[in-house]
Write a structure and sequence with these properties.
The protein is mainly alpha-helical and 88 residues long. It has three helices and no strands.
């Protein structure tokens, strides 16, 4: 355990930030999973709607620094490709 006051504060701050990051990552993963499930079921409308929601959550996470911008772009691209494959 830290003895210095600033070190104690850093522990609290980092715990709070890691909890926030964990919540946002979990929400993003759930949104991604909804897109995958809808696309596997062949539900074009549901997949497109879930894709819009997933892109929104991924962008929010990237803007908050939880995902790198290239990582977010890769996730969005793969999901879009999955949804576009349904119509083909």
């Amino acid at each position: 355990m830290a003895n210095i006051k600033s070190a104690k504060k850093r522990i609290k701050v980092s715990a709070k930030k890691s909890l926030r990051n964990k919540m946002i990552k979990s929400k993003t993963k759930t949104a991604i999973k909804k897109v995958i499930v809808a696309s596997e079921a062949g539900n074009k409308e549901g997949a497109a709607e879930a894709l819009a929601n997933a892109v929104k959550t991924i962008d929010k996470a990237a803007s908050k620094g939880i995902y790198h911008k290239n990582n977010a772009a890769r996730k969005k691209s793969r999901l879009a490709k999955l949804v576009n494959k349904i119509s083909a």
